[in-house]
Design a protein that fits this description.
The protein has one helix spanning 40-51; strands at residues 17-18, 24-25, 55-58, 63-69, 74-79, 86-91, 96-97, 100-104, 114-116, 119-120, 122-128, 131-137, 139-140, 144-148. With 149 residues, it is mainly beta.
Length: 149
């Protein structure tokens, strides 16, 4: 018995992944309440933020850029020494809205501060294991230096 999808071409003949047990599955991204209805420009910018945020350039030797994780919608870095800072620039292709950053192997225990071009940013933080997760309330539409201290 199917949920009615098999007759409309949404079966598992293509575009699927296989888990370790051999079962087929798909990943879906839900964008419920991501923007106001019919505000396609805002929605496009939000999606572009985690699909292709632009060029990332490291400005110090404390962290390295790892990848853009499209599943977790985050720009991933890895701390490579004991210094508690990460500095990089982002040159967006389109407007980047509320970017998120993950720094793996973060050794800091205290307060974290994020600066955008030297000015303190509005952020939300979480620590998960040895990773620091950062959400920044900002719209970035030109080259911006980001310092995480």
């Amino acid at each position: 018995m199917s949920a009615g999808f098999y007759r409309v071409g949404l079966d598992f003949n293509d575009h699927y992944q296989v888990d370790s047990a051999g079962r087929k599955f798909r990943r879906h991204v839900m964008l419920i309440d991501a923007s106001k209805p019919y505000n396609y420009k805002e929605l496009r910018n939000q999606i572009t933020t985690w699909l292709d945020p632009g060029r990332i350039t490291m400005l110090d030797n404390n962290c390295e850029f790892v990848r853009i994780d499209r599943i977790y919608r985050s720009i991933i870095f890895k701390s490579i020494n004991d210094r508690i800072r990460c500095k990089f620039s982002i040159t967006p292709n389109k407007t980047v809205i509320n970017p998120t950053f993950t720094i793996k192997n973060w050794k800091g225990e205290g307060k974290v501060q994020v600066l955008l071009n030297g000015s303190k940013a509005d952020i939300r933080l979480a620590r998960e294991g040895n990773s620091l997760l950062i959400w920044v309330r900002a719209a970035i539409n030109k080259e911006t230096t980001i310092s995480i201290l």
